[in-house]
Amino acid sequence: MTLTDETDQYGLPIPRITYSWCDNDRAMNRHGLNFMGQALAAAGGRNIWEQGDDTNHLYGTARMGHDRRTSVVDGDCRSWDIPNLWVCDGSVFPTTGGVNPSLTIQAVALRTADRIKAMARGRH
């Protein structure tokens, strides 16, 4: 993420998010797809198809926790270091679950929004 020279209605720089795969990302993706294909075939799977451009969910990097020394955000998804920064996506998960995380991410986002709203009204 980089900040642009353009500002929003509050005078804050607008972020630009750039995403791309490096050679290692492509190699890890290929390895994972090959391994999963072999596992499915060994279990009797047939007509196995691959989706090579989007095979996983991103987790971690902004871990949620109760201790600022071992986490990036608190239990409300608020940054320990930047008071007005809230993170509410899969990056706050300290570990992965066994199923698709979309509904959990949505729940975390809604809970975070409710917390921000309550704090704005002075109900900490």
Short description:
The chain is of the alpha+beta class and 124 residues long. Helix content is 31%, strand content 8%.
Descriptive overview:
There is one protein chain. The chain is an alpha+beta fold and 124 residues long. The protein folds into two domains: 55 residues, no CATH class; 68 residues, no CATH class. It is built from two helices and two strands; from the N terminus they run E-E-H-H. Strands 1-2 form a two-stranded antiparallel sheet. The protein is extended and about 60 Å long. It starts with a strand and ends with a helix. The model has no long low-confidence stretch (mean pLDDT 89).
User: How many domains make up the coordinates?
Assistant: 2
Summing up helix and strand content along with how strands pair, one would put the structural category as alpha+beta
**Straight-line N-to-C gap:** 30 Å
Quaternary organisation: single chain
